Write the structure tokens for this entry.
Amino acid sequence: MLWKPVLVATGVVIGFLVGAPPALVSALGAAVLLISRTTDSHRLYGEVDWGLLVFFIGLFLIVGGAENAGIVARFLLAARSVNLHSPAAFIVVTTLLSNVVSNVPAVMLLKSFVPSFPNPHTGWLLLAMSSISRQSHHHGQCSEHHRCRNRQGGLHIGLRQYFRAGLPITAGTLLLGWAWLRVFP
């Protein structure tokens, strides 16, 4: 069962490396996986987190309202003083926003800034690379020092443990991505 996702992921990576539009390659990969699925649709829909979907719908509405009200434009005007056209500054701001307010609102906020980059393609790649999501939810009683299990039985770690492992991985990934985009813009 694992051969299809591996084959599709390999095709998507090859598409990225040959210079195909990332959005098109990603959408085609997702379409192939959806069309070729063998799971019963009732079982598949049963595993959908409907509350999360409603949350994202609300998030898109709020960010759209902020754009229409001019809040995003004012934020981007203030951000020009940080020189977000510098790849290093853009990576730092995107990473910080993604971890403070979550990656989806950060991307929705910064997406209107990317077309003003000298090379918008590189700007989109920088935004995609540096919008990192943190999945460390505590649903049970856990201290920062001990591992625990949430109500669903999944293992969760404390903030200190997460930070100890996550910071070097995040920094290394961002440095590697930044270096890659400097060599292959």
